[in-house]
Amino acid sequence: MKEWDRVIDSGREADVALLLEGTYPYVSGGVSSWVHQIINGFPMLSFSLIFLGGSPSDYGEIKYPLLPNVRHLERHYLLESWQKAIPRPRRGNAEVFAQIRGMHAALRQRQGRLPAEEIAEALRSLGRTDRLSREDFLFSEEAWSMITDHYERFCTDPSFVDYFWTVRTMHAPLFLLSRVADRMPPCRVLHSISTGYAGMLGVLVHQRRGLPLILSEHGIYTKERKIDLAQADWIPDASEAFGGSLDDDVSYIRHLWIRFFEGIGRLAYDASEVIVSLYEGNRQRQIADGADPERCVIIPNGINVERFLPVRNSRPEGVPPILGLIGRVVPIKDIKTFIRAMRGVCNAIPEAEGWIIGPEDEDPEYAEECRNLVVSLGLEDNVRFLGFRKVEEILSEIGLLVLTSISEALPLVILEGFAAGVPALATDVGSCRDLIEGGTEEDRALGSAGAVVSIANPEETARAAIALLTDEERWRAARDAGIARVERFYTQPLMYERYMELYRRCLQMQTDDAEPENADADAPPATGEAGH
């Protein structure tokens, strides 16, 4: 696979360029489903898709059909962006490296506004042959001086080798992003679906072309990366090297990665015209991480409620003793807690079944561990791995939707379950409590649509599930509350209306008389179904 790989290219300007990291259209799941929903919901707008991934081996074929209003798709792999460079001695531009030092110093200050002109000047140098080329970063004396100086001043772990290669690994992809920014096809608005490297690409294009940038965060990128980094077995810790323990729970190298993602996140916040979160908790987290409160807005996800009316109407009488977990079989979904909870549920309700519905190919080793856990707990007759299934098929059969995740934002599957008449049991992460119990006084008046439990607590999860499944009156009240909540606050037309307002405003910033065709029309209904 070549570093620069254009999959389709109509050659025409797109209204919106979607900047996508590790998601649509090569990965199925919540965020990808939402991206497909957005493209599908705005047929009057044209879209360009810029996909960033780690390496080609991490991704297979496209998981979603490319819709007619997608004019361009290209993909880039960050881990391969620098490893074939040929070392040659060079001095490096001292002035530029001084600017880079200043930018790092500013990013270490977690509060206050970033020095816009100084940051912009440093980023304009990125990738320029006469300023800061990839080769200058990898091989110059100035780069070596900066890395060794920072190591001596800031690094608390003993290994210079680990520090050196970490700095290279995290920063080298920025030079690929610079190239992508320069060669990206024309568009009128940038829309990044996360901070991270996709957000950084948005910063570079925004600065170089003057395009407005919209940033949507379904989950907080830095928080999710902290979870990933805490579990990463590819990061060596000093405690491992010396056979002892450290005062800190997280090694310096892990902290280095976290600060890097926090830093480029602040750059994305500063460059964005508007910063979207799904609920108030995440909006407050963005502000704490440096986002301007005046630019932070909340747009909850919305679903096509009508799509699930036939499912709701076809559900059997009574409460099916079937618990369904719909999601990828990966550690962040904590499938093992669901399995352990099923042991307690089955002790009280022997006929109960637990269905795990989602792909297992993302982390085969973890999936195998989950299957082995089912066997070790004697649940072979009660727990089933169904793989990918249409969500309508599942929701018509289960009695309780369960999410045991250790991190979520605003799970679409809970809203879909509500629309289909299925109560939810979820861990107290992201907006799950707001979805189940209500986030405002008006919302809470509708009642509880299920139960909220603590993270990694199979006993509490089992008790809550048993209480709902064995009390039909309580179950029906939860079902009715979920239906009322999704129909009042989380519909697809509401979400489309709010995003159309953002797109219209940003398109208007480009020109007063060149809005996209029919852009002044009301937000349209969905013309198809969002993928899962």
What does this protein structure show overall?
The protein is of the alpha/beta class. It contains 22 helices and 14 strands. Helix 2 crosses helix 3, helix 6 runs parallel beside helix 11 and helix 17 packs across helix 21. Among the domains are: 38 residues, no CATH class; 74 residues, no CATH class; 75 residues, no CATH class; 185 residues, 3-Layer(aba) Sandwich (Rossmann fold), CATH 3.40.50. The chain starts with a strand and ends in a 22-residue tail after the last helix. The C terminus is likely disordered. Helix content is 46%, strand content 13%.
What are the main properties of this structure?
single chain; 532 residues; alpha/beta
Give the overall shape, derived from the CA principal axes.
globular
Portion of residues within helices: 40-55%
CATH class of the domain at 305-489: Alpha Beta
Which homologous superfamily in CATH is the superfamily of the domain at 305-489?
Glycogen Phosphorylase B
Low-confidence stretches: 238-249, 519-532
Find the count of extended strands (DSSP E, 2+ residues): 14
